[in-house]
């Protein structure tokens, strides 16, 4: 009898709430729930990228040849350095976040404020870097032509083995083609920005320049893009239909169309996470300043936001690997 | 949570720190070194690592393993998973590992299959 009573009492206690089997607060657990589901979203994107890449395994663009810019170093081939810089920025802002959490545990308001500020600056620098990376990607550098089947041909100087930009060889002729704008003709109907050169100008420039050859999308066994001989190039250039400069959601000068789409989508979604992280950090930064957590008696909010911030860093580690390294 | 106890050792107890601050800086140093190695490999691309092993280049296996190592230290030390109960650690990590491994397996196999169909099929995609 007595044992039955004690069981009931325990059950009552169980259902009365206040139990913490994980020894973690409600807020922290919910943040972990969010992080696990968001991690699955990101892995869905990255695996979709992997799927498309495996599907086009012999013609996928090589990241080293796409992301070659570094601020203030024009024309210098600097693959990877800039993304590496961005990675360090993000890891460092993660560290300042941990230090802020740690200072919060010891109730040191000044230190929390200082480290949070550093974290916000780091996040802002990262978002800014990503914007710069995007603008380079969208603008493009060399330009290319596209066939009806959507293949990209890039141009290489046979002697120097360097990429050649369209503007260095295309022969501009008089053209009657005008940009169709929204206020001309049919209402609410315009066209995409015209490339700087027409396809005829590029082809005639290519034909009259004997050093130029075509670099195809195809990758050889060693992982290099296959270049055609001059004779093959002259034959292939007749298949070119479009001039492509830079990148948009339809086509890009780097290669497979899906490459730019995944680049915009995955780095964009990650950048959006960093941006929201910065906003949330700013909000709690002001909360720290006005003493909200001091009055509350603990700085657990910093810990919860910190979890999110580290998660964003964690995602970048994977994006970095699968977009830029592998 | 005010004065929670941190586990202050990394590398399976090889390195032990006096304070949580020190441990964080050490982890930062470690992550920076790993990232530097990755970038150096990515730029130099040593010829010997470009050979295929288990249907991927050796260099890519190295990148993936180093990434998982980094992910472990970010989750365990920055996100304080090291200090959580093992039940919480397991419910996060096992869920993700299982679901992601499954997704990776099924989509990459499918992608590879579609590549074979396009490559060996009668339709020309090269025009």
Automatic annotation (TrEMBL), chain A:
PROSITE patterns referenced in this protein's UniProt entry, alphabetically: COX3
A GO biological-process term: aerobic electron transport chain
A Gene Ontology molecular function term of the record: cytochrome-c oxidase activity
This protein's UniProt keywords: Cell membrane, Membrane, Transmembrane, Transmembrane helix
Range of residues in the leader sequence: none
Boundaries of every Heme-copper oxidase subunit III family profile domain copy: 1-326
Keyword field contains Transmembrane helix: yes
SUPFAM superfamilies the UniProt entry points to: Cytochrome c oxidase subunit III-like
Transmembrane spans: 29-51, 80-100, 112-132, 262-286, 307-325
Membrane topology category: Multi-pass membrane protein
InterPro entries in UniProt: Cyt_c/ubiquinol_Oxase_su3 (IPR024791), Cyt_c_oxidase-like_su3 (IPR000298), Cyt_c_oxidase_su3-like_sf (IPR035973), Cyt_c_oxidase_su3_a-hlx (IPR013833)
Localization terms from the record: Cell membrane
GO cellular component terms listed in the entry, alphabetical order: plasma membrane
Principal location class: membrane
Family that this chain belongs to: Belongs to the cytochrome c oxidase subunit 3 family.
Record-given protein name: Heme-copper oxidase subunit III family profile domain-containing protein
Species name: marine metagenome
From TrEMBL, chain B:
InterPro entries: Cyt_c_oxidase_su4_prok
Location(s), subcellular: Cell membrane
Annotated keywords: Cell membrane, Membrane, Transmembrane, Transmembrane helix
One GO location term (cellular component): plasma membrane
Endoplasmic reticulum in keyword set: no
UniProt cross-references to Pfam families, sorted A to Z: COX4_pro (PF03626)
Chain ranges passing through the membrane: 24-43, 58-75, 87-109
Topological relation to the membrane, as annotated: Multi-pass membrane protein
Protein name: Cytochrome C oxidase subunit IV
Species whose genome carries this gene: marine metagenome
């Amino acid at each position: 009898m007595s044992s039955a009573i004690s069981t009931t009492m325990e059950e009552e206690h169980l259902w009365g709430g206040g139990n913490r089997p994980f020894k973690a607060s409600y807020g922290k657990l919910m943040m972990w729930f969010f992080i696990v589901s968001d991690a699955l979203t990101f892995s869905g994107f990255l695996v979709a990228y992997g799927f498309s890449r495996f599907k086009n395994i012999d013609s996928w663009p090589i990241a080293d040849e796409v992301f070659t810019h570094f601020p203030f170093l024009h024309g210098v081939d600097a693959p990877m350095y800039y993304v590496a810089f961005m990675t360090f920025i993000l890891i460092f802002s993660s560290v300042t976040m941990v230090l802020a959490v740690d200072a919060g545990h010891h109730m040191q308001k000044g230190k929390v404020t200082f480290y949070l500020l550093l974290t916000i600056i780091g996040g802002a620098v990262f978002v800014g870097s990503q914007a710069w990376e995007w603008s380079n990607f969208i603008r493009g550098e060399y330009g290319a032509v596209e066939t009806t089947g959507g293949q990209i041909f890039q141009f290489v100087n046979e002697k120097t083995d360097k990429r050649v930009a369209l503007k260095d060889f295309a022969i501009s002729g008089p053209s009657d083609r005008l940009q169709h704008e929204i206020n001309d003709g049919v209402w609410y109907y315009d066209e995409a920005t015209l490339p700087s050169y027409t396809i005829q100008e590029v082809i005639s420039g290519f034909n009259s320049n004997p050093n130029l050859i075509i670099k195809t999308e195809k990758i050889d066994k060693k992982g290099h893009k296959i270049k055609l001989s001059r004779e093959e190039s002259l034959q292939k250039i007749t298949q070119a239909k479009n001039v492509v400069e830079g990148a948009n959601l339809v086509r890009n000068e780097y290669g497979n169309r899906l490459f730019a789409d995944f680049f915009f989508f995955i780095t964009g979604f990650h950048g959006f996470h960093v941006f929201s992280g910065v906003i949330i950090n700013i909000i709690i930064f002001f909360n720290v300043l006005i003493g909200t957590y001091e009055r509350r008696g603990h700085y657990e909010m910093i810990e919860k936001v910190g979890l999110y911030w580290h998660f964003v860093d964690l995602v970048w580690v994977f994006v970095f690997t699968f977009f830029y390294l592998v | 949570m005010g004065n929670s106890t941190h586990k202050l050792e990394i590398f399976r107890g090889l390195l032990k720190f006096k304070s949580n601050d020190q441990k964080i800086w050490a982890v930062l140093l470690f992550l920076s070194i790993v990232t530097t190695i990755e970038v150096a490999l990515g730029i130099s691309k040593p010829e010997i690592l470009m050979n295929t092993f288990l249907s991927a280049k050796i260099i890519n296996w190295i990148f993936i393993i180093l990434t998982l190592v980094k992910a472990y230290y970010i989750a365990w030390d920055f996100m304080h998973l090291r200090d959580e109960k093992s039940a919480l650690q397991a419910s996060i990590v096992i869920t993700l590992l299982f679901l992601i491994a499954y997704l990776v397996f099924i989509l990459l196999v499918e992608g590879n299959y579609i590549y074979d169909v396009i490559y060996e099929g009668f339709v020309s995609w090269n025009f």
